[in-house]
## 1
Amino acid sequence: MREVLAEAAFQLFLERGFEQTTVDDIVARAGVGRRSFFRYFPSKEDAVFPDHERCLAEMTAFLEMRGSDASLDPVNTVCDAARLVTRMYAANPEFSVQRYRLTREVPGLRTYELSVVRRYERTLAGFLRRRYADAQGGDAPEGALRAEVIAAGVVAAHNNGLRSWLRSGGHGDADASVDHALALVRTVWGRGGESERAVTTVDGAEGSSADEVIVMVAPRGAPLWKVVQQIESALGEEA
């Protein structure tokens, strides 16, 4: 019944427009009463995004399952969790593209969508806070800040890749588009990225001999821009 109502609602939104469609119109198209609609959806906006509650539940379960394994990189884990949203969209490309276009046209739907995105972000940040608190022996403010920043980065990168795929009309590989964007988060914040920033080696730089190696050491966790600046400075001095 939930799917029947969602399909009826969405078709009416496309035919008549979101603002012009009422709940009475939706239940008439679905052949049910108003009570049935509100049993599944608190509002018309919820009927546009019928699958997010399930996806949020799946993400929460995924993170709970991974949370007990301290050997897993928490940044990789939240990136993998974000890909659950990608799969949800990719499961029905035509519907996802139509919804994306409808959301761009209706400010109220855009606001609703942002509230849903924020719920995903809070879920990811909560997982990261717990992991960093366990690692540091308490809920240190720095760990909480790190969790919020990384979660926001994961959501921003994921949405960038997903919207690129949606703007293409749902053509191509949605996972590849999202993975390309998430790679930046993994590089900057993941364990591999941190270790790479700790010691950086530049081999075969322009203006140096082929076997010349420049080694630059930076504090773990130093901003990436500062590391690059130091590398460029070292190369300039060598030249």
## 2
Amino acid sequence: MTPDPGSSAASALILVTGATGKVGRPFIDRLLADARYDRFRVRALCHNRKLPPHPRIESVHGSIQNRADVGRAMEGVTHVLHLATSKETPDEVMDVAVKGMFWLLEECRASETFRQFLLVGGDAAVGHFYYPRSAPVVESQPHSAYPGCYALSKVLEEVMLQQYQIQYGLNSCCLRAPWIMEKDDFRYTLSFGDDVFGGPRWHELVGESKAREYAASSAVPVMLDPEGRPVKRNFVHVDDLVEALLLALDAPQARHQLMNVCMDEPIDYGVLGAHLARTRGVPLVPLRTPYYSTWLDNTKAKFLLGWRPLYDMVRLVEAAWTYQRSTNEPRVVWYPG
């Protein structure tokens, strides 16, 4: 079911927080390139990095932690896409994830121009792969953050958004995403070197000597649960997430909804290892971990938005293993994972 972005007012101004990051940049690029959204202008709330100049982009420099900066950024805004977040940084996570979102929501509540708030949430709010599950994880799953301040912040974001829906009728939607992949990210999630992207940090599980040996042979880990079974873990490619965001933009069926946005099936590390051994000739290293399989169910987003993820395991592998970086494109780890 594709929304008609032209069915609302003649013009729109969307504020994007985290605009220079992993999701913000491709979202803005796709929005500006799609004729269906040619009535949209973009305002980016930038703290450290900057966006390249574009006639339909303006930047407001400031901090989401500062109410005055948020107030300036929200002037005349019709839509908000909230992407700014903080990882395992206890000194700032509450200021960024809770206070910053509170200032945004307060400005939306009081605004005469505001129409829709979009939040990208995370499966950290329901425990990721830290807890055993006996059924697929759907949107009604109670919040169950794993240890650490990042997962707690994702719970608080979702709860705040829901309360503004209840208390004030705020038109909003949360797209809950698992680990977001782009370019060669997925390849580096399986590295035994210091260049590993995210966790587990495999070299720390096997020791320095073995890690060097495995890295030299391009070996990949096969993550096992406490019972020795291959773990199933959820991912989404940034292109699929951006498509879901565009479909949710101004969509009446997205109002007050929480939707899981992920690949149709989680990646089974056993199946993944066999595929890589067959297609890339890499040795496999089974590793027992304290993590459990989860299956994030994306049926709701498919039903309400008509969204379909294009990436499955094979496509994710091929994209990551064939990606070629130019000499002026250093690998950037946007966040530890």
